[in-house]
Write the structure tokens for this entry.
Amino acid sequence: MKKGTFVIPVLIFAFLAVAGGCQSKRGGGSVTSLPEIKPAPAFSFTNFDGRTVTNADFKGKVYIAYFFFTSCGGPCPVMNSKANVLQAEYADEDDFRIAGFSVDPETDTVERLTKYAERYSAKPGKWSMMRNDREVVAALASKGFMMGDASVPALHSTRFALVDRHGMIRGYYDGMDDAKVEELRAAIDYLLEEKS
């Protein structure tokens, strides 16, 4: 046997061992399992297109949820840009959605959200940017999604929550960390391929 001929089978085995889970089609990560953290909360908000959007609209869908406000000059533009990329990458996936909740409803009127949605090319039916009373969104963030204090807009979470088709939160991913967003892509792929 020539020197080095055993290397290829060993490399193939090593690759299969690492890629034993769902290999992301869009990034470098892979996932073998995701915990069921808790049920995602019920909600009813007004979307940027004036429609009422509820958690029932996400039934049977895999979605990411996050918090933002339109006048934010820090993490929000970064997170919305990443959501925009995910919307494009999963454009052909009928079962993928994005849910953004404004933590500054006094400023973020439907009209303002409409302009903001246009800025990030949010597609109605695919990506919702929603508003409700401050107390409602604060409770949704802290008690519902367990994503910290949203009563002070500048202190809102920079994480994306990932929710499966059955309405279970399956993970949290820091939207400011590119490596965590890669993990999010792999997790989305995993949930999209998971049997209903």
